[in-house]
Amino acid sequence: MFLSIITPTYNRGCSRFLRELCHSIALAKQYSNLDLEHIIVNDGSTDITERVILGLQDEFPYIRYLKNTENQGITVAKNYALHEAKGEFIADIDDDDLVPFYALGLRAKLLLENEHNWLCGNGIQITEEGRLNFRENLLISGIENKWECLRAFYEGKLFAYAGTRLYRKSVLERIGGWNERIHSLCEDFDLWLRLIYYYGAPIFCEIPLIYWRQKSASLGIDAVKSGAYFDAISQIKLWYKDLYEEAVRKSVLEPL
Hints:
CATH topology: Spore Coat Polysaccharide Biosynthesis Protein SpsA, Chain A
Shape: globular
């Protein structure tokens, strides 16, 4: 199998978002004629999420359903899916986003044509109702040099939109997947720093690869408001301070 898409979810049974994501993946799959599986991990939901996923599985037989009996957090859910994945490549896509019809094939083509181990790209914001909200992209271009790229990510000057990443599964497995010391916040930031340090900078795609949903309330928004998000970033930076200091020493450019 070529591609495994992994989507953790929790208590999305009464929301249309998960259904809309699955329909957008179906269109992208058909457009690019990709051999893929979509692994949805129900992380201990207490609503009708299981019933919704089973219904989607009837509609889209390439969906695989995994279940945690209790909520264990996004890193455990992602690693569960990674362990079960059959694809050569891994894409992790949030349960409330939408995939443009061209995006799966484009990212696969880009990674196959290069020797990089992972890819990320731009995204476009959509409203809760699904309307596009065009805005300036955060990623103007990539940074090829490993050390400069690590510095830029660490310093918050580069960012990889959720839902745009594509990884070689073998590389994720070698670095141990997502860090399960982290329950639900900034787990991808932790992963990116390790990926860059051990396997180099990603390919950057300037073409939007995801429509990410801006909501009035979510785990991330609540974490920013409470300060928990910034606490999590600070803790991760502390864990990898030595990697950053090495990157500063080896970087060939002026301070970013």
